Amino acid sequence: MQRAKSMNKLVLAIGFALFPALSFAATAPEDQNYDIIVVGAGASGMPAALAAEQSGAKVLVLERGRAVGASQFSRGMTGVNTSMQKERGMDVTPQFIYKMMEGYTHQFFNSKLALLEVNNSASTIDWLNKNGADLHLPPENQQFAHVGNEPIIYHMWNSNKSIAALAEKFQQEGGTVMVNTTGRDLIKNEDGTLGGVIAERADGTKVTLHGKAVIIATGGFLGNQKMLDEYGIVGHPMGWLYNDGSGIKMSWKYGAAKKGENITEYHGTGICTPDNRESVIFSDLEPLIRMPTLWVDPVGQRYANEEVVYDNALVANALVPFGGTGWVIYDQATIDHFKTHETGMHDAFAMIRPYLNKKASKQAGPLPQLQELLEQGVKEHSVYKGKTLKDLAAAVGFDDKKFEQQVSDYNGYVKTGVDNQYFKDKKYLLYPVKKGPFYAVNVTAYNLTTIGGIKVNEKLEAIDKHNKPIPGLYAVGNVAGGLYSDSYMLVEGLTAGFATTSGRMAGIYAADWIKSQK
């Protein structure tokens, strides 16, 4: 958790530097009446606010932080049948992507939310670009596992500027953004209708803000350790720690039903220390945990076909049943080879790296500083080293005999080219673990965001325990429950895609509802 706090300080510092031209209100007049109050100014909140404002509503946005765009470091989002895909002659149909989602969830999901995404993502991306978000389609899929198996649906955006561009456009259209302000409670009028939001400023003072409709866009609860523990969510938190579940909890208090509150987006892995801080050398050692070599669980036994490393969702999911952490095992011979040669394997982001950095190779290695980095990892306890396998087992805490047997079995698979345990492809059975000293590199499941909490219908209206919509209350993005069955789907960019699409559509729906009440 300490690393996540440090990460958020970095995000804040960078975020403020990126948006020097934008200024936001520190408060808003309490005697003003708004049509719609949007709580949260991220990838779902700003599209919701802008779409509502452009639909004729008077909109106020509340943002807990000092700047908009807590999600600014996401790289992009799902797009289905977009104009950019059509320009390349690609035929990416809503039916195809919907079937992917249907298959992954075994139909255990809100199909209407899935249809909302696949049928509206193209128009949302065009709309985002029209309003300055600057999305583009890369030449390859983001992850190696998806190359050749799926169409290119991951639309990348200028993550440093896109949300800020929407906020600027929103203000130009007449909307108000109120920063340093947290939504705390929903107001219920004497006649039982929704009356707005009671918010709290950074100095602790309360402010009452009147609105006919409220859109909750507060982005999950990775910043609430009590809720994470309650719902059994593990891993290293990489999300925004301002997302403490306040929007979810005030919606539940108001009468919204719960849905998907125990679901989170495990996505990717990292190298961490025993107290769950991200290693300071993670970025340099990253190739070691992006290849399907020998991976073991906390008791020193293999737990999956290591080819799962090529899909960010699967590699993290595979660790979660074992507590969310494990180890990648190397011997000195392999390390020496990696220092001077390509590894003979792609890493998980092999296809997209050259697009992000023209100097990058699709092959991992050579890694000339590898020995020094490993020794630094030993000092911070993100890497353990043993002269013998027995020594390594003692250092990490494995049963030495069982660990030695597992390594012996794995070496046999490498020798014969046949993995009789988890059936890994022969082309990845390249490196035995024989020559000491030996190394165990920590690998921890990363947790990007929780993805659920408030039960909604196809119009993003919060619904009660009787499945009846709560007039004027909407939930979007990561707080809207029902899209996911038990985990993130293997659809590149779905979290950000659903955030922007659901946000935009809720803004339109809420504005239409306001008009219908007049």
Automatic annotation (TrEMBL):
GO terms for biological process: steroid metabolic process. Its cofactor is FAD. Coiled coil: none annotated. Keywords: FAD, Flavoprotein, Oxidoreductase, Signal. Residues 1-25 form the signal peptide. Residues 35-484 form the FAD-dependent oxidoreductase 2 FAD-binding domain. Gene3D superfamilies: FAD/NAD(P)-binding domain, Succinate dehydrogenase/fumarate reductase flavoprotein, catalytic domain. One of its GO terms (molecular function) is oxidoreductase activity. This is FAD-dependent oxidoreductase 2 FAD-binding domain-containing protein.
